[in-house]
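Lab meeting, item 3. Inverse folding demo.
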C-alpha cells in the first residue's frame, strides 16, 4: 500500500503503460485522475476500478487544459502528490519530407505537454509539502533511431527538461525522474509493427533481451520512482529497455564465430 492517501494525475492513463500504472497505483491504495483523449477507454477503466479513479477529456497539447484539471483533481481528492506525464504519440519521417504540422504535433504532445502539466501541477505539489514527477521519455530520447526525427527530438527534450525540474525543485521536496522504455507491447507500437510482416521479429532480434517489454514492467519502474522508496532519486534517466541502450549497435560476433567465440 505504497500509495495509500496519495493522488496522482496520469496522462494517457487509459492504455498501455499508463493503464498499467493506474491499475497498480489504485491497488496500492492511491487515487488517480486520468487525463485522456480516449475518454471511452478511460471511462471503462474508471468503471472497473471504482471511485478512486476519475477521468477528464484532455488534449495534453492544450496549454490551457492543465490548470483546470489540476484544480479539479485537488478538489475531488484533496490534493495532488504525483504527476505521471506519460501520454505520447509516435511519428516517422525524414527531415526533408516532414510536414511542419506533423513535427509540431509530435513536439506538442510529447514535450510541450510535459511543461504545461508541470507548470500547473507544481504549485499543488508544493502545497502538499512535496511530491514526485515521473516523465515517460524513451530509449529513443537517449540515442537516435533512423527516421524518428521529431519523436527523438521530443523525447531527448523530456530527458533534459526532467533534469531541470529535478534541480530547480529539489529544495521544494519535489523529485523528477524520467523513464526510458525500449519497445513495449502496447497499441502505440504494435498497431504499426504488426501490420508489417517480419518487423516484430526483426525488432525483437535487436533487443538484447530478445522481446518487447510488457506495459506492467515499465509501470513498475514508474511506480517505484513515484513512491517514497525512491526518496533519494531525482534527475535520473532510467532505461527500462531490455538492454537496448546498453548495446553499441555493433554486430553480435557470436553469430559468425560461434558461441565459444572462436571461428
Ligand atoms: N510502446 C512503446 O514501445 C514505447 C517505447 C518508448 C516510449 N513509449 C512512451 O510511453 C508512453 C505511453 O505509451 P504507450 O506505449 O503506453 O502507448 P498507448 O498508445 O497504449 O497509450 C498512450 C495513451 O496516450 C493517450 N494520448 C495520446 N495523445 C494524447 C493527447 N494529446 N492527450 C491526451 N492523451 C493522449 C492515448 O489516447 C493513449 O491512451 C508514451 O509517451 C510513449 O511515447 C512507448
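The presenter then showed the designed sequence:
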Amino acid at each position: 500500500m505504497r500509495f495509500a492517501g496519495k493522488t496522482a494525475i496520469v496522462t494517457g492513463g487509459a492504455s498501455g503503460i499508463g493503464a498499467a500504472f493506474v491499475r497498480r497505483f489504485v491497488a496500492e491504495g492511491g487515487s488517480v485522475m486520468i487525463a485522456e483523449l480516449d475518454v471511452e477507454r478511460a471511462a471503462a477503466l474508471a468503471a472497473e476500478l471504482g471511485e478512486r479513479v476519475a477521468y477528464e477529456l484532455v488534449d495534453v497539447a492544450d496549454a490551457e487544459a492543465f490548470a483546470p484539471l489540476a484544480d479539479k483533481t485537488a478538489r475531488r481528492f484533496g490534493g495532488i502528490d504525483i504527476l505521471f506525464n506519460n501520454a505520447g504519440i509516435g511519428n516517422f519521417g525524414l527531415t526533408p519530407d516532414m510536414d511542419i504540422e506533423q513535427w509540431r504535433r509530435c513536439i506538442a504532445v510529447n514535450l510541450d505537454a510535459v511543461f504545461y502539466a508541470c507548470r500547473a501541477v507544481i504549485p499543488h505539489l508544493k502545497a502538499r509539502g512535496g511530491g514526485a514527477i515521473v516523465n515517460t521519455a524513451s530509449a529513443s530520447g537517449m540515442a537516435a533511431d533512423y527516421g524518428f526525427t521529431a519523436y527523438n527530438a521530443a523525447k531527448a527534450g523530456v530527458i533534459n527538461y526532467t533534469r531541470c525540474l529535478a534541480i530547480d525543485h529539489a529544495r521544494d521536496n519535489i523529485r523528477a525522474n524520467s523513464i526510458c522504455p525500449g519497445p513495449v507491447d502496447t497499441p502505440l507500437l504494435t498497431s504499426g509493427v504488426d501490420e508489417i510482416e517480419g518487423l516484430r521479429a526483426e525488432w525483437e532480434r535487436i533487443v538484447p533481451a530478445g522481446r518487447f517489454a510488457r506495459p506492467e514492467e515499465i509501470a513498475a519502474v514508474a511506480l517505484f520512482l513515484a513512491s517514497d522508496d525512491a526518496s533519494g532519486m531525482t534527475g535520473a534517466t532510467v532505461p527500462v529497455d531490455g538492454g537496448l541502450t546498453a548495446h553499441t549497435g555493433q554486430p553480435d560476433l557470436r553469430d559468425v564465430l560461434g558461441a565459444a567465440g572462436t571461428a
